[in-house]
Design a protein that fits this description.
The radius of gyration is 18 Å and the shape is globular. An eight-stranded antiparallel β-sheet has the order 1-2-18-15-20-14-13-12, with no helix packed on it. The relative contact order is 0.18. It contains no helices and 20 strands. By secondary structure, it is mostly beta strands. Strand 12 and strand 13 form a beta hairpin. It binds (2S)-amino(carbamoylamino)ethanoic acid and manganese (II) ion.
Length: 244
């Protein structure tokens, strides 16, 4: 249904709201039995790429020259490197440093949130190492003391990592306590529930399945609406000096 050209999607200088009715699917180089929805890329002004990979059983991602972070949205995937083999289910995630030889093979129909970024080394600091984890094993932290707003940091708090990926869970009615304006950019995938997102000078209704990119300094605020918690996966560049 073309909906007479109407959509909630919006692309502004400092933000992008990408809603499922506008998703375009295409395989990326090296992908087999699968397609990618590229939500954001340097072409839009971002310093990273985020896409949703939709894989058929036995489907695989291609290789990347960048660091790769993968969060399993649904289904399950086998991760094989030269020295390890692990299966990840929904809520499982992995961080792969640049140059990690690996294959990712879907065991069933699987959707993956994939973030790729060129690594920014830091003098005197050892580079980040491969990591596999499970969101349910991460202890939540109340954001600024608000027990209705839980943050789970999926990557270690270490300068070896040049980005962070967190989940944030808002009880109905919970909201960010301030409008944030910061140098970091964000890639955000709504996983559950919904609410109102302020981006720049606009307020958008958002719901599970939506993607948002926020440029550096994009004014941002979120309040959860409805009777179920709202939850999102959020990327930000992290741990590096703004001049580097
Ligand atoms: O980590 C963050 O900057 C986060 N609080 N931003 C956001 O949720 N838009
Ligand atoms: Mn923020």
């Amino acid at each position: 249904m073309h909906n007479l050209g109407h959509t909630r999607s919006s692309h502004q200088r400092d933000h992008l709201l990408h809603t499922p009715d506008c998703f375009v699917r295409a395989p990326l180089p090296g992908m087999k039995l699968g397609t990618a929805i590229v939500h954001v890329a340097p072409a839009a002004g971002a310093a990273f790429t985020q896409y949703t990979a939709e894989l058929e059983p036995e489907g695989t991602l291609g290789s990347t020259a960048a660091q790769r972070f993968v969060y399993v949205l649904d289904g399950s995937v086998d991760l094989a490197t030269g020295t390890s083999f692990q299966t990840l289910n929904a809520g499982g995630y992995m961080y792969l440093p640049e140059g990690t030889e690996h294959t990712l093979t879907a065991r069933e129909r699987t959707r993956l949130a994939v973030i790729e970024k060129i690594y920014q080394p830091l003098e005197g600091v050892t580079a980040a190492t491969m990591l596999v984890g499970k969101e349910s094993s991460i202890a939540p932290v109340a954001l600024m003391g608000d027990v209705d707003l839980e943050v789970r940091s999926l990557l270690p708090d270490s300068p070896s990592y040049d980005f962070a990926v967190n989940t944030m869970t808002y009880q109905p009615g919970a909201a960010l306590s301030m409008v944030e304006v910061h140098v970091m950019e964000h890639g955000l995938l709504m996983l559950e529930g919904g609410g109102i997102y302020r981006l720049g000078d606009a307020w958008y209704p958002v719901t599970a399945g939506d993607f948002i990119w926020m440029s550096p300094y994009c004014p941002q605020w979120f309040g959860a609406l409805g009777k179920q918690p709202a939850k999102y996966l959020i990327y930000k560049d992290w741990n590096r000096h703004p001049l580097s």
